[in-house]
């Protein structure tokens, strides 16, 4: 089993920073992996961790980096879990429930989110009690892990683990030739080659001065700010 730790780099691309090859994926294995990372890079501060809906990664990370680490759930995995459980819901209710869940995920106002979630559970509790029970058990009390209204902080500007999924697809297709690999030495060789390619791509972007994703967004905001008319601006302080 290959375990990958990936970050979003300054250019808005996924970059693998650590791998672990293990026969199992447990909290102990993940904790050991993060401890090695911390020992090798003691000055690295980990603020946010995004995973699928599995506490193994969160428990392993906070054992090393402390309880202050923020744990976010990948929206794609949350969405997949909801769709799977919606199969047990009456067909005429599935679309309405799914649309409401999508609205909840992307709502940015926390007060409005709370109101809508309460309305959702109250309305569907008598119509689809089993689904509401599932939602209340696994998601209602953990809204801070999946709802966008709780993500008003820097988190690499991403809400899914698609960087990771893309990396694994590239590894299997381009470096393992789409074949099932059963040899560790072949896997290690492929990982060394893909890491080398990733490193050179980043080095090339830095050498060419490629504008990163954050700089593009800041440039757009600056351009919009310049379009604000002077009469629409109100002075609130003599020094500003």
Offer a concise description of the structure.
By secondary structure, the chain is mostly helical.
List the helices and strands and how they pair.
Layout: E1 2-8, E2 14-21, H1 27-40, E3 48-51, H2 55-65, E4 70-73, H3 75-86, H4 91-106, H5 110-125, H6 129-138, H7 143-146, H8 162-175, H9 184-208, H10 213-226
Parallel strand pairs: 3-4
Antiparallel strand pairs: 1-2
Could you describe the 3D structure shown?
With 240 residues, the protein is mostly helical. It has two domains: 2-73 and 160-208, Nucleotidyltransferase, domain 5; 76-150. Helix content is 57%, strand content 10%. The chain has helices at 27-40, 55-65, 75-86, 91-106, 110-125, 129-138, 143-146, 162-175, 184-208, 213-226, and strands at 2-8, 14-21, 48-51, 70-73. The strands form two sheets. The chain has a two-stranded antiparallel ribbon. A two-stranded parallel ribbon has the order 3-4. α1 packs parallel to α2 and α3 runs antiparallel to α4. The radius of gyration is 22 Å and the shape is globular.
Count of helical regions: 10
**Derived structural class:** mainly alpha
Main pleated sheet: 2 strands, antiparallel
- The number of domains is 2
- Spans of at least 5 consecutive residues with low confidence: none
- Identify the CATH architecture of the largest domain: 2-Layer Sandwich
Q: Please give the number of β-strands.
A: 4
How does the overall form come out from the CA principal axes? Answer: globular
List keywords for this structure.
240 residues, Nucleotidyltransferase, domain 5, mainly alpha, two-stranded antiparallel sheet, two-stranded parallel sheet, 2 domains, single chain, globular, 10 helices
